[in-house]
Structure formats: C-alpha cells, structure tokens
C-alpha cells in the first residue's frame, strides 16, 4: 500500500471564532472558525481523514494548504503504515518545527492504520482502559452569577470536574461555594499573571482546593514556573509545544500539558506520555478543539495510565458539541461524568460526506 494523494477541503462553518481556548471575551474575536478536512488517499482505497480546526493562524486553510503542498512530494509513494519513518522524515526536514499540518498528516496515518486492521487506534497503541473522566472546559461570561449558574448546570448534567477560564478569584470562590467540595475544579489563567500575582493567586486556589493551576505565566518563563512549583503545593502546568524535557528535568511543572494537534500528532503525544511516565509525572493533553482533535487525544489517553482527565469543550451555555464539524459522531459524557472509547476503526469518526460536498477543495 502506498500514499497516492493528499487533499484538503474547507468546510462551511458557523462556529464563532471567539469560542477558542485563548479568549473569554466575545468582543475580542469576530467572525467564524474555519475547519479543514485533510485526506490521505492510498492506492488500495483506504483513506485517512482528519479535520483541522483553525484556532491559530498556521491551522487556517491558506497556511495549512501551503504547508501540505510542501509536504506532498515527501509523502506520495510512501507506505502509510511507516508512521515513524514519516514522522522522522518530515520532522528532520522542517528542523523539528512541527505544526497543524504535520499533526494532521500523522493523525490521518494512524486513522489509516486502524482501518487497515479494523481496530480503534487506542487498541493499536496498546490499550489501557475503555473510559476516562471528563472535565467541562470553556469560556463563560464575566458575570459571577452567570458563571455560577453555568457550573450548577454542568454539575446537573453529570460533570464531576470543570475548568472555566479565565476567572477572577471572586468567581473561583463563588463556584466552590456553590458546587461543593465533591466537584473537581481547575484554574486556567491563560498566561495572564506576573510572578508575584501568580504566587498570590496560587495560594488562594490552594485554600479553595483547586486540582491544578494552569498557565499562570507566559510559557517561555521557565524560571518563573520553577519558582511557582517550588513555593506552591497546588500542581502547576502549562501548555507546551516543545521543550517538554527541559520543563520536566528542571521541575518547572508538576503535570505535563501539550497540544498535539498543533505539533506532532498522536506519535509525538505518545512519546511525551512515555517521557512523563519515566519521570513519574502525569500528562494532561490540551483537547480543547475540533472533535477530530478530541478523538486523537482520547485514543492516546485510553492507551496510557498516567493521565486522569479528558477535556471536553462547552460553550457559554454549557452546550457540548460546539466543534463537532465534519462528522455526525459525538463524544459525550455518561451519567457518571466519563467519556468512553470509540468503537469504530481508526479515529472512530466517520466523515460526513454531505458536508464535504458543500466544502471548497483547495488544490495542492
């Protein structure tokens, strides 16, 4: 089996651009989110599919197509089951700087592998469990009363854990008071604080029994993270696209957090998970994104033991499925707050070809 072609289709979408992991304010970002289907076609008919969501500039259709156009000559004619060889080949060519197009290729190749052997990816990766706890993740309004109402609604739906960001300390206190101690709360500051403020807020979060403290400082401030991790008992984490070993080695984080959809896909996420395991650390992948991104992360999470939660995006009203573009399949919690393993082969998501018919194909 050989890779015969790569195609990209841009979906029509009405998902508001402000529903991203970088902004909690509707007024700050206008327009709609762009979603692109990347297809790897083989000479034997098996196809790998992955939908990229356009949260960052490199993931938007024009930039994505430009990168895929450069990748294509190095992919056509390759055996799609040689994922590690392709990973090393493309990674070396691009000086180790990966991105959404790289991740899309890797995840689509895993989708092919699962379809070839008729197994979901998590079983190809070894398989560790068939369900994992989920936490609701989203950007609520800035009103404390509305935030509290949202958390109560999520609790009623069955969520046992929540991360709503960015939040004031007033909102953090109000949420804890209203949802009780049985709900796990996570604080994501979205890189908002300086060192002194981050330390002060961290100490308050400890009093409120928050589970982890995410992205209080800019990701490049490794010295600041080292200081916070030493002074605070609450676990510290931050999303990283690279330098995972340096942050782990220097004890700058207590939990490793990565963004596989904007870096090296499933292959890289599995490598980072193994690295964390060697240092006895948890890994909690950033899964706020399109449903294909969610599914790719979920498969890895189900194949490892050093991960506790699946991140499930919700909108300002607590509605799931806000990024379910390109498929009719869904990822939802059960009554106990768990998400379950996909049962279909590969990623476990069937492409909605009616949406593809309405999409715009970009020439590579």
How would you characterize this protein structure?
The strands form 3 sheets. Strands 4, 5, 6, 7, 8, 12 and 13 form a 7-stranded mixed beta sheet that branches. The protein has 364 residues and is an alpha/beta fold. It is globular, with a radius of gyration of 20 Å. It folds into 2 domains: 128 residues, Enolase-like, N-terminal domain (Enolase-like, domain 1, 2-Layer Sandwich), CATH 3.30.390; 217 residues, TIM Barrel. It contains 12 helices and 14 strands. Helices cover 37% and strands 17% of the residues.
Layout: helices, strands, pairs:
Elements (H helix, E strand, L loop, with lengths): L2 E8 L24 E8 L4 E7 L7 H15 L7 H11 L6 H18 L3 H4 L6 E8 L5 H14 L3 E4 L4 H11 L4 E5 L6 H13 L5 E2 L7 H10 L4 E2 L1 E2 L3 H6 L5 E4 L6 H14 L3 E2 L7 H13 L5 E5 L24 E3 L12 H5 L2 E3 L2
Parallel strand pairs: 4-5, 4-12, 5-6, 6-7, 7-8, 9-10, 10-11
Antiparallel strand pairs: 1-2, 1-14, 2-3, 4-13
Helix pairs in contact: 2-3, 5-6, 10-11
Rounded to an integer in angstroms, the radius of gyration calculated over CA atoms is 20 Å
Name the assembly state.
Answer: single chain
The count of domains is: 2
Q: Using the 3D structure, state the CATH architecture of the largest domain.
A: Alpha-Beta Barrel
Outline the low-pLDDT stretches.
24-28
**CATH homologous superfamily annotation of the largest domain:** Enolase-like C-terminal domain
At the fold tier of CATH, the topology name of the largest domain is: TIM Barrel
């Amino acid at each position: 089996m050989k890779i015969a072609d790569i195609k990209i289709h841009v979906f029509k979408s009405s998902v508001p651009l402000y529903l991203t992991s970088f902004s909690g304010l509707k007024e700050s970002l206008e327009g709609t989110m762009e979603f692109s289907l990347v297809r790897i076609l083989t000479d034997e008919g098996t196809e790998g599919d992955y939908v990229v969501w356009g949260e960052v500039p490199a993931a938007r259709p024009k930039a994505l197509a430009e990168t895929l156009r450069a990748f294509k000559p190095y992919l056509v004619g390759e055996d799609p089951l040689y994922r590690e060889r392709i990973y090393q080949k493309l990674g070396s060519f691009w000086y180790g700087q990966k991105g959404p197009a790289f991740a899309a290729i890797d995840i689509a190749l895993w989708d092919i592998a699962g379809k070839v052997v008729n197994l979901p990816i998590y079983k190809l990766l070894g398989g560790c469990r068939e369900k994992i706890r989920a936490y609701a993740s989203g950007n609520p309004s800035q009103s404390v009363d509305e935030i509290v109402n949202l958390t109560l609604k999520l609790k009623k739906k069955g969520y046992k854990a929540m991360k709503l960001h960015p939040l004031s300390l007033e909102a953090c206190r109000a949420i804890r008071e209203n949802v009780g101690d049985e709900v796990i709360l996570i604080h994501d500051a979205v890189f908002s604080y300086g060192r002194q403020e981050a330390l002060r807020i961290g100490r308050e979060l400890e009093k409120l029994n928050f589970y982890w403290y995410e992205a209080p400082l800019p990701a490049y401030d490794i010295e600041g993270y080292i200081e916070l991790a030493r002074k605070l008992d609450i676990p510290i984490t931050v999303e990283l696209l690279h330098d995972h070993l340096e942050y782990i080695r220097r004890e700058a984080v207590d939990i490793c957090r990565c963004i596989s959809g904007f870096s090296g896909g499933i292959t890289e996420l599995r490598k980072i998970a193994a690295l964390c395991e060697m240092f006895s650390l948890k890994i909690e992948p950033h899964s706020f994104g399109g449903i294909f991104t969610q599914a790719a992360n979920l498969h890895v999470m189900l194949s490892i033991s050093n991960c506790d939660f699946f991140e499930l995006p919700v909108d300002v009203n607590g509605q799931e499925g806000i990024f379910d573009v390109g498929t009719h399949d869904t990822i939802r919690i059960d009554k106990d707050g768990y998400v379950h393993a996909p049962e279909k082969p590969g990623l476990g998501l069937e492409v909605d070809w009616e949406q593809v018919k309405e999409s715009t194909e970009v020439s590579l």
